[in-house]
Design goal:
- The chain is of the alpha+beta class.
- It has a domain of 114 residues: Lipocalin.
- Helices cover 17% and strands 35% of the residues.
- The chain has three helices and nine strands.
- Strands 1, 2, 3, 4, 5, 6, 7, 8 and 9 form a nine-stranded antiparallel beta sheet that branches.
- A hairpin with a 4-residue loop joins β4 and β5.
- The protein is elongated, with a radius of gyration of 33 Å.
Length: 188
């Protein structure tokens, strides 16, 4: 009986040791996979088959039409009023407004119903947009803002979005309205 108990204990210890030895090491911390690199779609053609049609070949199937390539989108930094000029629409907190950037350096703003919001003077200095609100505007007098402005357009030159990066601005309301909480401005 003692021999049997000893054998049973030895067997249990062996099983425990083998189980512990076969356990896997703790998993390494999970890392995010790299983002896929965008690949521009290309037009492809299907070459004609070189196999002659015979009684034993499968019937012909419809050839799928290759997808139309999506237009290439380019973002460039705006350095001149002429490149910024136009009417741009933005929506913030469910309210839509428009800003008309003009080559004469004025930028009137209005609500969707046409009610004026204010006027700004705009100019470019060293590749940066300088904004000064007119007296009585949202920002106190002398609180000028300086921004990098980026224009996104399609390969055929059609403007799509404006994006503003703050360089400096003491007027929080203007900064929020230009940055749109990270959203781009869209051409109407």
């Amino acid at each position: 009986m003692k021999t049997m108990l000893r054998t049973l204990r030895t067997l249990c210890l062996t099983v425990i040791l083998l189980t512990a030895c076969q356990s896997q090491p703790p998993a390494a911390p999970m890392a995010w996979p790299p983002l896929p690199t965008p690949v521009a779609p290309t037009a492809t053609t299907v070459p004609p088959t070189s196999v002659p049609a015979t009684a034993t070949s499968a019937p012909p199937t419809a050839t799928s039409v290759p997808p139309k390539p999506t237009p290439q989108i380019n973002e460039v930094q705006v350095m001149r009023l002429e490149d910024l000029a136009g009417t741009w629409k933005a929506t913030s907190m469910d309210k839509t407004f428009f800003t008309d950037y003009r080559v004469d350096g004025t930028a009137p703003k209005r609500w969707e119903d046409g009610t004026p919001m204010g006027m700004s003077k705009v100019s470019f200095k060293d590749g940066l947009l300088v904004i000064e609100d007119a007296p009585g505007g949202v920002c106190p007098e002398g609180f000028n803002g300086t921004y990098k402005v980026f224009l996104t357009k399609t390969a055929d030159g059609k403007p799509l979005h404006l994006r503003f990066e703050t360089v400096s601005d003491q007027c929080y309301q203007r900064e929020v309205s230009l940055r749109m909480d990270g959203k781009d401005w869209v051409e109407p």
